[in-house]
């Protein structure tokens, strides 16, 4: 999967931008606040139409304007596609080759972007919600069925919480909603378990390439109940046991929305026993690992890494760049670079200049 061109109109600080890219590595170089991360954000937005910096689409619109526009050309093997996104303050409109996209879940099949941003270095220290979000985004890109399931779960959870907040909660309604939650939770837990198993098959090798040594590591997924062949019975008992407390708190205290995972390095939870450097390299491996789960070379994700090089020593920096050189298309932001023979896009005050295109 290759992003060949990008056009921005009134996106963040960019009034107008027209760029073409190299199919391999692209360095976005410039001082702080010049617009590097905004450009990286626009590229990432092409996948699932979500920002890695804000939940409010209105923040993406240039000050004084009513909407922002992104247009991108993406090549996947022999397929050439044009994605258009109009970001309004209240809604967004997405087109594929000029026709409205029916479902947002289809977007990730058209263009898949994985990203590592500075905040990701703290993923193992952060809230469980950040780690669940990692699972949900990764799985939603792989499976439209998972996207529908997790959307259904979130809707049912909202209904159950609303029912709990009533002055006199209807216990029959609560039981019906609980049964529906259990119905949708079982396949989601199995999807998550399989995804974690797939990641664990690739993580040790990827981390070894990034670190330069081989250490045992794995993700440990903690489901809200055991999936031991009796998922429904276990889940029903868990909800029954929690019901009285839920009625007092007026909120659902158990379920998929409380699940979590940990990263174990040498058998120990890295968030408790790992150094800052170990956490950073493990987080980088985790965020890049979905690239390895896709076998078709034409469907490999586009990788966006924002300000990752400045936090690495020379050895780890060279290892990362060597690894990315073997992969598909990547975008890296930095304040400066001494790397030659690459595509470099100089950014200054939200204006760009492309130079040094692999000697062409």
Structural commentary:
The chain is of the alpha/beta class. The chain folds into two domains: 1-112 and 294-360, P-loop containing nucleotide triphosphate hydrolases (Rossmann fold), CATH 3.40.50; 122-293, RecF/RecN/SMC, N-terminal domain (Glutathione S-transferase Yfyf (Class Pi), Chain A, domain 2). The protein has nine helices and 15 strands. The chain has helices at residues 36-45, 107-110, 128-142, 144-164, 171-211, 231-249, 270-273, 276-288, 314-326; strands spanning 2-11, 14-20, 25-29, 67-76, 79-88, 92-96, 99-100, 113-116, 217-222, 260-265, 268-269, 302-305, 330-334, 343-348, 351-355. The strands form three sheets. The chain has a six-stranded antiparallel β-sheet with strand order 2-1-4-5-6-7. A six-stranded mixed β-sheet has the order 8-12-13-3-14-15, with helices on both faces. Strand 10 and strand 11 form a beta hairpin. Helix 3 packs across helix 4, helix 4 (144-164) crosses helix 5 (171-211) and helix 5 packs across helix 6. The longest helix has 41 residues, at 171-211.
């Amino acid at each position: 999967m290759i992003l060949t061109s990008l056009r921005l109109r009134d996106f963040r600080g960019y009034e107008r931008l027209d760029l073409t890219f190299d199919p391999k590595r692209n360095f976005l170089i410039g001082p702080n606040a010049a617009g590097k991360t905004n450009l990286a954000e626009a590229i990432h937005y092409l996948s699932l139409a979500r920002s890695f910096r804000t939940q409010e689409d209105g923040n993406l619109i240039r000050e004084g304007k009513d909407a922002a526009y992104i247009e991108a050309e993406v090549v996947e093997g022999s397929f050439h596609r044009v994605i258009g996104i109009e970001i309004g303050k209240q809604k967004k409109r997405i087109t594929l080759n000029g026709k409205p996209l029916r479902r947002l879940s289809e977007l990730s099949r058209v263009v898949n972007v994985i990203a590592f941003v500075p905040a990701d270095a703290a993923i193992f220290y952060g809230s469980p919600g950040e780690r669940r979000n990692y699972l949900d985004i990764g799985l939603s890109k792989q499976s439209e069925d998972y996207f529908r399931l997790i959307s259904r779960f979130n809707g049912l959870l909202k209904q159950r919480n609303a029912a709990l907040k009533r002055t006199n909660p209807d216990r029959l309604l609560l039981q019906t909603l609980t049964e529906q939650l259990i119905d949708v939770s079982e396949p989601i837990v199995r999807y998550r378990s399989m995804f974690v198993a797939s990641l664990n098959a690739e993580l040790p090798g990827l981390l070894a390439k990034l670190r330069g040594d081989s250490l045992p590591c794995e993700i440990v997924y903690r489901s809200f109940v055991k999936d031991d062949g009796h998922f429904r019975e276990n889940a029903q008992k868990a909800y029954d046991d929690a019901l009285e407390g839920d009625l007092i708190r007026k909120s659902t205290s158990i379920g998929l929305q409380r699940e979590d995972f940990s990263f174990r390095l040498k058998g120990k939870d890295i968030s408790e026993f790992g150094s800052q450097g170990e956490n950073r390299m493990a987080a980088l491996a985790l965020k890049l690992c979905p690239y390895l789960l896709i076998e078709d070379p034409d469907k490999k994700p586009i990788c966006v890494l924002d300000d990752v090089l400045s936090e690495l020593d020379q050895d780890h920096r060279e290892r990362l760049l060597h690894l990315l050189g073997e992969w598909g298309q990547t975008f890296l932001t930095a304040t400066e670079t001494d790397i030659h023979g690459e595509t470099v896009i100089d950014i200054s005050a939200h204006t760009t200049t492309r130079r040094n295109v692999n000697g062409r």
